[in-house]
Amino acid sequence: MANEEDDPVIQEIDVYLAKSLAEKLYLFQVELEMAIDTLNPNYCRSKGEQIALNVDGACADETSTYSSKLMDKQTFSSSQTTSNTSRYAAALYRQGELHLTPLHGILQLRPSFSYLDKADAKHREREAANEGDSSQDEAEEDVKQITVRFSRPESEQARQRRVQSYEFLQKKHAEEPWVHLHYYSLRDSRSEHERQYLLCQGSNGVENTELVKSPSDYLMMLMPPSQEEEKDKPVAPSNVLSMAQLRTLPLADQIKILMKNVKVMPFANLMSLLGPSIDSVAVLRGIQKVAMLVQGNWVVKSDILYPKDSSSPHSGVPAEVLCRGRDFVMWKFTQSRWVVRKEVATVTKLCAEDVKDFLEHMAVVRINRGWEFVLPPDGEFIKKHPDVVQRQHMLWAGVQAKLEKVYNLVNETMPKKLDGQSGPAGLVSGDQRVQVAKSRAQQNSMLLAQELQQRKEQVWASGALPGVRIKEEPLSEEGEEEEEGEPMDTAPSGDHHSRLTNGLPAGRVAGGDSFNGLPSPGCASTPVAQELRTFVEATFQRQFVLTLSELKRLFNLHLASLPPGHTLFSGISDRMLQDTVLAAGCKQILVPFPPQTAASPDEQKVFALWESGDISDQHRQVLLEIFSKNYRVRRNMIQSRLTQECGEDLSKQEVDKVLKDCCVSYGGMWYLKGTVQS
């Protein structure tokens, strides 16, 4: 209301549409100052005569450009300014009425210097004539044989190319006949007569029925959509989008398009492109759906660049394999600023062109060094958003576990610190890594042996528990070497219910007694222990058998789904996770893996839920007892053992349920879940 009061309506004007000259009215845009006045003292008469002589020659006829032998006129050539003039009109205001007449065309008149081309042509003709006279005798002596060839019939495509060529258009333009027009000045009576046609002839509204419409229809008539101009505009490539068009899309689509085109971007740059009005929290939430954090910078996810059902343009490899290979390159850059292309090709088994595409997305090549990550580490983002960094770290741990299983990678026990690293510390060969791993394994073995001996002394000092079976290997952290040894069984042989794989009765573990001289985490009342216990119990209720490697992967995915600041982000060690599994009523199954197995230490640690409270508990316990002595078993052996232990003939459905809960079939044999090695 305030704006309307500040801008009051001063006058209302009636608008009329005049159509008498609608198909005849043209607008000529011309600079009138270009007219030539030969009587002006500033006009150079000798120069005008020279130009006329060069253009027309000494003799004057009807075809001469300048009949007065003096450059006394200037030619203007017209060019069409727009292909659609329906939105333009000429307006005439008279006696409080505005009369509009649509324009049929708009032409720009520009000076034409074709007379200079004509003068050059005349000059070349004279030079050719002079040379022809001097060399006429020599030309008669040099008689050469020529071959006559008949032109082929012109094809339709050739004719279209010729018609669209510049030479053909110029020739057609030159052949167009001139139309002589008469110019009438502003004050001439003929001009006054023609100007009356710009006024609407009938003021009673008979001729203006088109204006008796709704405001929206009136505006559409006055400013119709320019369909022809849209067709004439060049079509932009499919991957090009202006910032104005981009900001009309939802925020999630804006982030996806930007990351797909840029591929690697710091968070600060992304915020500057999206605009200052965008909430950074919403951007953080959206960027994690389409990108992964590498050295504090965001790199677009592989499945965004290689969607499902696509393939490599170089080798035809499916998108799934390409995503796996690119994820390996991204993961390598989370470990170091430098990556060697040959190493990537050797591990991923992809062609050199595909590997080069991966590296060019996020790195630059350095001669005799390898490929360096394209952006420096963004330490500011890492310090400002620790929750996001922790969540991304958990996601990368899941990706690493998947890559290790697919590519049979060896866990690197030496983490690399990227903060403050300005250049490469040197490329480490595979042999050097093996030597470092061996030395660390020997050191860890000595420390673990001492720790194990201390725990044994504590247990025996407090009095050995009857029926306790102690396994001669400590529960180690990820990447540590474990001592190999046979379990020392101090329990009498008997039914499988009294055989204790973990070295503890199930009741004592659940009750929270000491475990190998250490307090059980199951009795801890801290929020972290309770949350971890809840996750472990819920996970084993869904999957009865899990390896430590698979459990860690599921736990990392669980952490990634939690909100920032959750208690579990305080840090969970492998030891704490294993102790919680044992305290939750699970047991470790000592599967006898073959000596040549490629399984990692975490994959060889198998845990199973001993009692779930359903009728199949006894059947699963018999099955787990079988796999504590056998790496793989045939189905008939499992069924006969179940019948022998349970004392009844089990149906096929009951056996299938037990096998489905705990095992997988491969090559006609049955394995515990997570232990099969293809």
TrEMBL record:
GO terms for cellular component: RNA polymerase III complex. Residues 417-678 form the DNA-directed RNA polymerase III subunit RPC5 C-terminal domain. One of its GO terms (biological process) is tRNA transcription by RNA polymerase III. Residues 120-129 have a biased composition (Basic and acidic residues). InterPro entries: RNA_pol_III_Rpc5 (IPR006886), RPC5_C (IPR045576). Residues 475-487 have a biased composition (Acidic residues). Residues 120-160, 470-518 are annotated as: Disordered. It comes from the Eukaryota. This is RNA polymerase III subunit E. It comes from Phyllostomus discolor.
